[in-house]
Amino acid sequence: MKLYSYWRSTTSIRVRAALNLKGLDYEIVPVDLVAGVQRSDDYTAVNPGQGVPALVLDDGTVLTQSLAILDYLDETYPEPPLLPEGAVARAQARAAAHQIALDVHPVNNLKVVNRLKALGHDQDVAVDWMKHWMSEGFTAFDRLIRPDTPFCFGDTPGLADLCLVAQVYNARRWDFDLAAFPRLGEIDARCQQIPAIASAMPDQQPDAP
Amino acid sequence: MKLYSYWRSTTSIRVRAALNLKGLDYEIVPVDLVAGVQRSDDYTAVNPGQGVPALVLDDGTVLTQSLAILDYLDETYPEPPLLPEGAVARAQARAAAHQIALDVHPVNNLKVVNRLKALGHDQDVAVDWMKHWMSEGFTAFDRLIRPDTPFCFGDTPGLADLCLVAQVYNARRWDFDLAAFPRLGEIDARCQQIPAIASAMPDQQPDAP
Known about the structure:
Largest interface: A-B, 44 and 44 residues
Strand order of the largest sheet of chain A: 2-1-3-4
Shape of chain A: globular
Largest sheet of chain A: 4 strands, mixed
Oligomer: homodimer
Structural class of chain A: alpha+beta
CATH class of the largest domain in chain A: Mainly Alpha
Helix content of chain A: 40-55%
CATH topology of the largest domain in chain A: Glutathione S-transferase Yfyf (Class Pi), Chain A, domain 2
Number of helices of chain A: 10
Strand content of chain A: 5-15%
């Protein structure tokens, strides 16, 4: 498999960590989002959504959208599972993950922040914008996960944890104060002890500067 | 089951249509997003994410986040299915749905548009902002669905179609010109012929003015 990825993209972090947890081999193809490579004709032919990640299967099929890729991986390579057993437990784990993946990440995406700047706002306003959505999102996430398990929903990291570690990386990048969310900091620290997750983080990527 | 819902919310449309397609009984509890009821302590206790929809099961369990609810419904009440058979086909249907559910809706959400206005922008700028993301999102969606099926991925409406009809409603609300997307208009028209979908649309809701 081949993964179109950008080192700092939080959606790329999620998929790299899942591929690693499941012990799958893949080749990273870096896409430089800051240089705008994702909007090139060549890349748009791969992913009409012009984003990363995109996963190319061995038969050439391209899968896009990180959450859809994670579901595919979990269906196709079930061990270790990314979701708990039981339809209600799965729905609750998905809901927490979506609190970050739908209510924080899309609004703080590079293309959205660039649009904000095109409206005349400077970097300080953009950073405040990002922190606002992180504050709201982490507050809800903290209330949606289980209060007493090593990871968000059990004894092993899953979908919600992968969304969390990626967003925590982004939070630190923008000096967002995580002190109000001690449980989230603890889960992130526990995740970073797992080589499959640690090696998915931005600084470990071939396109990291 | 009880569904916390707002008549014009596109995420509520998706879940109402799925409940109807699967022939499930539910009671609508309107949440007035414009009046800010979603931020009340009472509602935050139901849904820490302070959004709609939220589905309350008969045992009192609350499920939040529309896509997580749709997955729950599809797992628990498999007929008619919202996703095609086969892991790759499912991933492609999810990816198209997410092109709207993650790349358009969250950025055009009421709370995001209100934040834009708090930065000093007027309604015209807000509408341009919404149209920009719809244009990008519909363009990608159009390339991610199958080119030749009655609905986005087959002979019956599924996850991608439900995301589409809700976003098309929103597009018309803001006078977004859909002429560049004839296939999307055709699929929407076909969906509106299905009573389960037509009755999920905003004007049919108890809280519609």
